Structures are given as structure tokens and as C-alpha cells.
Amino acid sequence: ETDRNDPRTVLPVDKGGLGLDGQWADDVHHGLHVALTGERQGYYEDFGQPGALATVLRAPYLHADTWSTFRGRRHGRPVPDGVEGWRFVVCTQNHDQVGNRREGDRHSATLSPRRLRCAATLLLTSPYTPMLFMGEEWGASTPWQYFTDHLDGALAEAVRDGRRAEFGRHGWGAA
């Protein structure tokens, strides 16, 4: 996983890349999520701009050496011509995007069937490799929350503090 929006991850080694077959392209999720839900807090902030969804359906990154208000700096690199779309794995939901929401709510619990069909259509007809989150194919609506049992007390506390801070950035309040 990487959120650097750096296509060198999938470029061949002889072209200065890491030579991996594929990588997550979370910007597609973010663009779809904002268009479907209207949420614009936290890391969704940049995806509320006009044309954001169209941008990520043409190229996997919203930010390709462009300004990110959320990050407070320029972010990403453009994807060079010739890099196949299938190298970018995209989703409408995944373990991070659902599990790290305060309530663990899935789209099928909060969106209309019409919006769910729209999301599925855009995902499955995009030029990228689609990934369905467990149960998404049949509309699972049960929450899927982040879970862990850190044995190290300091690590457990750091995770709790980090999650509270992230919830605050999204306007969800403390857990």
C-alpha cells in the first residue's frame, strides 16, 4: 500500500521503477465516495472539487504533482503514457475505508440501491482492476470495524490516539 501517488511503483526497474505488477489507487475510491455521499472532511477534502471524479476515472491519481489542500503541499506524480490501467487496483470500499470509519458503516447501509448501482457500474467499467470488499457483491450492510488486540500497551494507546485524531478530522467525534 502507498498513498504517494507515484507511478514508479508499477514502472519496470529498467525505467526507474520498482517493477511491481500493481498498486492501490485510493483516489478512485475517494472520488467515488465524495460523489456518492457528499462527505468532504479529512482526506476527502480535495475530492469535492468540480471534476475530481472525472479526473480519477481517466487517470488513477487526482494529484499528479498538483496542490493538495488536505496535505498542504503538492502531491503525486503523473502516470506516464503507456502504463496500463489494470496496474491500478480500485474499489468503492475496502478494509481501510470501511474499517477505519467510526461506525464501520458500509455503503450498502447508507446509500440507496440506485447509488450503489452507479458505484458498481463506474467501478466495473473503469480502466482499472476492480476489487470488491467482502460482502459488497450482495450488499452486506453489517458494520465492519477495525479490530486488533495489541499486546504492547504503548502501541494500543498510540493506535487509540491516532484513531481519535482521524475521527476528529472527519468530523465524527471521539470514539
Describe this structure as you would to a colleague.
This protein is mainly alpha-helical. It has two domains: 7-143, Glycosidases (TIM Barrel, Alpha-Beta Barrel); 145-175, no CATH class. The chain is built from six helices and five strands; from the N terminus they run E-H-H-E-E-E-H-H-H-E-H. The protein has helices spanning 26-37, 52-58, 95-99, 107-110, 113-124, 153-169, and strands spanning 23-24, 66-68, 73-75, 88-90, 129-130. The strands form two sheets. It has a three-stranded parallel β-sheet. Strands 2-3 form a two-stranded antiparallel sheet. A hairpin with a 4-residue loop joins strand 2 (66-68) and strand 3. Helix 1 packs antiparallel against helix 2 (52-58). The longest helix has 17 residues, at 153-169. It starts with 22 loop residues before the first strand and ends in a 6-residue tail after the last helix.
Keywords:
2 domains; TIM Barrel; 175 residues; mainly alpha; two-stranded antiparallel sheet; 3-stranded parallel β-sheet
What secondary-structure arrangement, pairings included, does this model have?
Blueprint (H helix, E strand, L loop, with lengths): L22 E2 L1 H12 L14 H7 L7 E3 L4 E3 L12 E3 L4 H5 L7 H4 L2 H12 L4 E2 L22 H17 L6
Parallel strand pairs: 1-4, 4-5
Antiparallel strand pairs: 2-3
Helix pairs in contact: 1-2
